[in-house]
């Protein structure tokens, strides 16, 4: 299996759909490495699913670096993209370059992901010129959840549609190699996808994007909540709960450890 590269991902547009999942640890990364998955995202969603925060805002650059290191040890074949967390790139271009550089030098990721459009265009341009590949992210931007008024579908209003299409084009012009579209109406996501020459990767944005991404904990059913944009391929929350209860019962009933588990 060959290592996936930026040029490989860009070349998939119009040929086949791109697959991406989040990952935060070595054990899951090892499993991913035995599949044909294209991209692994070390997302700031780690704040929600790993640390239990209500939003992604508390996640730090050091936390993303830590999780990226773990994922890198397990994933040898996928393109690894790391999220730049809240306030790691918004303050200044120098901060953005320094933090993105740390993600690549210390975390050993292949690219970074930033939320925003026109307002971060210059940052994207400077990062790309510094040799740091950038994936964009528009639509719902979890780091701006308070400013956006909560988690909601984007692209219902004409001005939103124009802004989304414009932002996608600006990100492409600034050097982004792909763009995540989150909770964008599917017809609008189709319009964006057809208006740019780099891949779009959707989450809750319909089937017309060039690829799809899901949070691994949601996809595996590791939480009891159901989200419209998600498909649960397993229900590990119940499976693990049942396994723990069976373990507790076996220990109390002195069924574990048995002779085969003893030395």
What does it look like?
- The structure is a single chain.
- The chain starts with 5 loop residues before the first helix and ends in an 11-residue tail after the last helix.
- The protein has 2 domains: 227 residues, Phosphoenolpyruvate-binding domains (TIM Barrel, Alpha-Beta Barrel); 28 residues.
- Strand 6, helix 8 and strand 7 form a beta-alpha-beta unit.
- With 263 residues, the chain is of the alpha/beta class.
- The mean pLDDT is 97.
- An 8-stranded parallel beta barrel has the order 1-2-3-4-5-6-7-8, surrounded by 5 helices.
- Helix 6 runs parallel beside helix 7 and helix 7 packs parallel to helix 8.
- It contains 10 helices and 8 strands.
- It is 39% helix and 14% strand.
Walk me through the topology.
Layout: H1 6-11, E1 18-22, H2 26-33, E2 39-42, H3 46-49, H4 61-74, E3 79-83, H5 93-105, E4 111-113, H6 121-129, E5 134-139, H7 158-174, E6 178-182, H8 186-195, E7 200-203, E8 211-214, H9 216-219, H10 236-252
Parallel strand pairs: 1-2, 1-8, 2-3, 3-4, 4-5, 5-6, 6-7, 7-8
Helix pairs in contact: 2-4, 5-6, 6-7, 7-8
